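USER: Write out one fold?

ASSISTANT:
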Amino acid sequence: MSTEVLEWNIVNLSGTTDVAITGGTIVASVYGITQTFQICNYVTCPIPVGPFTFSGTINVPSNVSSSCFALQFTGVNVDMRAYDASGSILGCVQGNVPVRCS
């Protein structure tokens, strides 16, 4: 039995750092599904001082929600936290993000 998986490109972060980032993780939670991203798998490390961007995809099983259409009206609650290589928090984002169905 296979499970259909929906890919949601909602892990998009940008910011400015005042210290070089040599590694770490971004932990993103959507609908109680948590995925951890190794920063250096998505960007070239070390990230130099200055502006940076990060994008990742969260794979959400289709049975989590019966209707993408309904989510367009309610949005999705997201919690993202970024940690450096030593485990210190770099930043966090919590909120409701809009959903677009294709």
User: Anything to note?
Assistant: The chain has a mean pLDDT of 77. Helices lie at 68-74. The first strand starts at residue 5 and ends at 17. The two ends are 25 Å apart (CA to CA).
